[in-house]
Specification:
The mean pLDDT is about 90. By secondary structure, this protein is mostly helical. The protein has two helices and no strands. The two termini are about 20 Å apart.
Amino acid sequence: MKWKLVHTGLLSAGMSALVALIVTIVNTGFDVGLLPRWFLAWCLAFPAAWLAAFIWGPAAHRLACKITPPPPQA
């Protein structure tokens, strides 16, 4: 469970940071105040992304295994 929480947190942190950056640039432009606006957007987006990834992750994994063969175990 600890691995799942850490993995989900890292994945959702990176994805929400990128999406928040793109949406912030599109909505407000690229200027000197971008960093604080992006950080606020990311602070709001990250908890929602983490919760969504935690809930949706197992179903997404099962669906991916049905669509494609699972990768070999290391």
